[in-house]
Design brief:
seven-stranded mixed sheet; binds phenylalanine; BirA Bifunctional Protein, domain 2; alpha+beta; three-stranded antiparallel sheet; rod-shaped; 10 strands; single chain
């Protein structure tokens, strides 16, 4: 590049001025930080247009150089200020667009982790407890590993009773079994209190050597016991009828069929009218299979021998003391209510099955 058309001081200053002015005008067009950098190099860089002009300084008399130098520095400073201003402008723009594009919308609902729910057995147990709580039954529990004595002798189950068969009972050690029913809690409750009235409900797991579509080696029962002077079979009926209506629907009926359990006398199997066909016993009814009735529990009047076994003090007047007891299977009731045909589904932990019972 030539120093200046005429090599004069004025010409050179004019040249610097025109480069600087054009550069200042072009600056506005640099729309990215990268192009701004290129622009800076092209004008002010070692081989930039501005520097090229100043290379001609050698051909200028020494006395004239300060004037050109001062003018050059002046323009250079202006250019640099303008470049810096444009740079911060572009940086701000870039930040703003980045903030916009990387913006996180915190108002969007997050992905919910799948929520768990209570197992159908737990749901059914709680529902039943609620019903009896309203009648004043207190919930109490007993151990699942129980003495043979409390499981059998104390509730009047003789040595030769089939329930004590090795085939039915899991023996956990000498004199210790996995309880085969919740009835030992009757005895524990009476012994603990040592007097009456006793009105308890006792839910929990029980164990029997059984395994098919309707029997599991572990299942759940709820035991009920109400002991007081004047408790009659009619009270048992009334309480169970209330229970049946609350659980199976308000038009439910119950019937008692004579049956034998060693710890009650008289004893009964209790049926509830089929909630599916309203007890009509419809031919094709899949719930009651046409009988109109569903067997739901065992019950009866507490055998007097249990009061003896409970250690109630005869002198304190328990003569004539009565009571009723009942025991129901939770699985059976849950299966009826939800029309579940295979009990084993309850214990396979399959979420496809279990998630249907989300309350
Ligand atoms: N314990 C009995 C059973 O497991 C049920 C029952 C309890 C029957 C109380 C009568 C009274 O089958």
């Amino acid at each position: 590049m030539s120093v200046s058309p005429d090599g004069s001081v004025a010409g050179m200053i004019a040249q610097l001025k025109s480069i600087a002015e054009k550069a200042l005008a072009d600056l506005a067009q640099a729309s990215t930080l990268e192009s701004l950098d290129e622009f800076r190099v092209a004008v002010l860089g070692k081989k930039g247009s501005f520097s090229e002009v100043l290379k001609g300084l050698g051909g200028i008399p020494a006395s004239d150089r300060p004037a050109i130098g001062a003018a050059a520095n002046d323009w250079k400073r202006k250019l640099e200020e303008a470049l810096d201003a444009r740079k911060s402008e572009l940086e701000e723009k870039r930040l703003a667009s980045q903030l916009e594009s990387e913006r996180i919308d915190i108002s969007l609902p997050s992905r919910q982790p799948p929520a768990g729910a209570l197992h159908p057995i737990t749901q059914t147990t709680r529902k039943i407890i609620q019903v009896f709580s309203r009648l004043g039954f207190d919930v109490t529990t007993g151990p699942e590993i129980e003495t043979e004595f409390l499981t059998f002798e104390a509730v009047n189950i003789p040595k030769d009773h089939p329930a004590r068969d090795m085939q039915d009972t899991f023996f956990a050690g000498p004199g210790v079994v996995l309880r085969t029913h919740t009835s030992p809690v009757q005895m524990r409750a009476m012994r603990e209190k040592g007097e009456w009235p006793v009105r308890i409900l006792s839910p929990g797991a029980v164990y029997r050597c059984d395994d098919d579509a309707t029997h599991s080696p572990m299942f759940h029962q709820i035991e009920g016991l109400w002991v007081d002077h004047g408790v009659k079979m009619s009270h048992l009926k009334g309480v169970l009828e209330f229970f049946a209506r609350e659980i199976f629907g308000s038009d439910s009926k119950i019937r008692l069929r004579p049956s034998y359990f060693p710890f009650v006398e008289p004893g009964a199997e209790v049926d509830v009218s089929c909630f599916n066909c309203s007890g009509r016993g419809d031919d094709g009814c899949r719930v009651c299979r046409g009988s109109g009735w569903l067997e739901i529990l065992g019950a009866g009047m507490v055998h007097p021998r249990l009061f003896e076994m409970a250690g109630f003090d005869k002198k304190s007047g328990y003569a004539g003391l009565t009571g009723f007891a009942f025991g129901l299977g939770v699985e059976r009731i849950a299966m009826l209510l939800h029309r579940i045909s295979d009990l084993r589904l309850m214990y396979q932990g399959d979420l496809r099955f279990l998630s249907q019972f989300r309350a």
